[in-house]
Amino acid sequence: MTEHAAQGAAVPGLRERGKARRREAITRAAFELFAERGYDRTTVADIAERAEVAPRTVTLYFPSKQEIALSGFTERAQQLADRLRERAPGESLTAILGAWVDEKHAEPWRQGLEEEARLMFCANPELRALQMARMADAVQAGTEAVAKDTGTLPTDPGPRIAAAAAVAVMLAVGDSPSGTDMHAALATALRFLDGGLSTL
């Protein structure tokens, strides 16, 4: 490969890293402002100014302010659904859910903003409802997993109730107030879910 070709091959990687940095900067700026001013009182122009980009750049990455608020969650919800469908033989539903919560709190852009995100969702019923709606695919994947483990059908009420309850419990753990012992809360939640699943 020539030097020119090698440089050309490196460009997409640099471009993608630049996009990722801008996306993270916009997200962090938005959550900081949501915490300072409230979600409803923060505009796209405010977010652009804080992130040091043009308003058009914000809308290029996120069609709406709502999408910024839900962006990280939407991606994580899809990752959970994918993991449930691709789980290894013998891997339990609760193990996947526990790992998902742990990783959710380890995301770099969330550092220092966990409490702000929690308060934002608690204060905005519309965002909370959308958050639950975006877990629909994960609930379906969980339903299929529970049905497979219990030898029942995904259309039976038991698997779907169990999957919906599991997702709701994990969201509740993830929304624990600042200062909560997350390991203890997660352990309690997983014991609860294991107990419920054992009754199916």
From TrEMBL:
**Per its record, what are the GO molecular function terms?**
DNA-binding transcription factor activity; transcription cis-regulatory region binding
Provide the transmembrane region boundaries. Answer: none
SUPFAM superfamilies the record matches: Homeodomain-like
InterPro entries given in the database record: DNA-bd_HTH_TetR-type_CS, Homeodomain-like_sf, HTH-type_TetR-like_transc_reg, HTH_TetR, MftR_C
Keywords linked to the UniProt accession? DNA-binding, Transcription, Transcription regulation
State the coiled-coil residue ranges. none
Keyword Ribonucleoprotein annotated: no
Annotated HTH tetR-type domain residues:
20-80
Q: Which parts of this chain does the entry mark as a DNA-binding region?
A: 43-62
> Matching Pfam families, A to Z?
TetR_C_14, TetR_N
Any idea what this protein is called? Transcriptional regulator, TetR family
